[in-house]
Amino acid sequence: MSKPRVAVVFGGRNSEHAVSLMGAGSVLEAIDRSKYEVVPIGIAQDGRWVLAAGDQRYAIEDGKLPVVDTSGAELALPSGEAALVAYEPGSIPVELGTVDVVFPVMHGPFAEDGTIQGLLEMAGVRYVGSGVLASAVGMDKAYMKAILAAAGLPVGPYVVVRERDWRLDKDRVVKEVEQLGWPVFVKPARAGSSQGISKAHDLASLETAVEFAQAHDPKVLVEAAIVGREIECAVLESLGDEPPAASTPGEVLVEGGQEFFDFEAKYYPDQMSLTVPADIPAETAEELRAMAVRAFEALGCEGLSRVDFFYTPDGRLILNEINTMPGFTSLSVAPQLWAASGLTYAQLVERLIQLALGRKAGLR
């Protein structure tokens, strides 16, 4: 019998292109080649799908972020066929065979936000991770917070700033933001990896921060600053009928002098540390784990998610956000949390592939 064919898809048309490549490098190293046939597929920054070159570099080198090498054959995934087709100008398209499951190690808009999930649904291909709706809601922080609050989970105060309102009714928007109190955090509603985020201490810096966030997304979220420690928990879907499992919680500490957990702190060496288990009371850790699973189920997530909390000095837990495809290098937070909980990175990758292979294509 032939081995199941796993297409690892990475890259994409957004500012998290490099983050995706770094995660894909770890996944490609971890997949058991004795069990699976692996096809690495890069999505270039201009949207082209290409068969990744064998010597593709996936890490930050000399301060330079990796990008998809476009020298390989271009690919297409015809709708409803689950078959890869390679084509080059002046050549007859060549079918490369069917794909059993796609592992989309992708982040941000046009990737993690339900768009690639919708494409794969249309093509009839199984894939790792959450479906279209959960991915879209998890990417849009405004709708995410609305769903989490509706599920009875504690979220911090926030204001949604839409491009039209900021342009035509800025005074009203500013008054709403001022009610949050200063400082505030300003971020793109649909971006990740701390891209486009800044901290505003007054009206002047608010205007600069909104314009900076709008460079990534016309829809912006302004959040009240919450004093507290950042505690994170990963959630993993069960292979059977058991409920999702929550990892041991861990605390993220910024070591590089940044004012908050920004892009450099997340992805450059020696900028952050993770303490696992987090030094919090046992009953608080159990409450946090239960809340993480509730958030996972409220959005209808599948596969893996990471849920981020603030633990305030007065002992409250406030849910910051859920990531339906968290950073996925072997040194990223979610894999580290599972490693501390007894599941190695290779075992985590295997579990996610098995979950996807066991899921039927289409509505479920």
UniProtKB/TrEMBL annotation:
Binding, Mg(2+) 1: D308, E321
Gene3D superfamilies: 3.40.50.20, ATP-grasp fold, A domain (3.30.1490.20), ATP-grasp fold, B domain (3.30.470.20)
InterPro entries: ATP-grasp, ATP_grasp_subdomain_1, D-Ala_lig_Van_CS, D_ala_D_ala, Dala_Dala_lig_C, Dala_Dala_lig_N, PreATP-grasp_dom_sf
Pathway entry: Cell wall biogenesis; peptidoglycan biosynthesis
Entry annotation: catalytic residues: E16, S193, S332
Any one annotated GO CC term: cytosol
Entry GO MF terms: ATP binding; D-alanine-D-alanine ligase activity; metal ion binding
Cofactor, how bound (note): Binds 2 magnesium or manganese ions per subunit.
Keywords: ATP-binding, Cell shape, Cell wall biogenesis/degradation, Cytoplasm, Ligase, Magnesium, Manganese, Metal-binding, Nucleotide-binding, Peptidoglycan synthesis
Requisite cofactors: Mg(2+); Mn(2+)
Binding positions for ATP per the UniProt entry: 141, 185-187, 193-194, 223-230, 320-321
GO biological process terms, semicolon-separated: cell wall organization; peptidoglycan biosynthetic process; regulation of cell shape
Entry keyword annotation includes Transport: no
Subcellular location: Cytoplasm
Domain ATP-grasp: 145-354
Catalytic activity field: 2 D-alanine + ATP = D-alanyl-D-alanine + ADP + phosphate + H(+)
PANTHER family given in the database record: D-ALANINE--D-ALANINE LIGASE, D-ALANINE--D-ALANINE LIGASE A
Chain's role: Cell wall formation.
Family: Belongs to the D-alanine--D-alanine ligase family.
NCBIfam families for this protein: D_ala_D_alaTIGR, PRK01966.1-4
Protein name: D-alanine--D-alanine ligase
Species this chain originates from: Nonomuraea dietziae
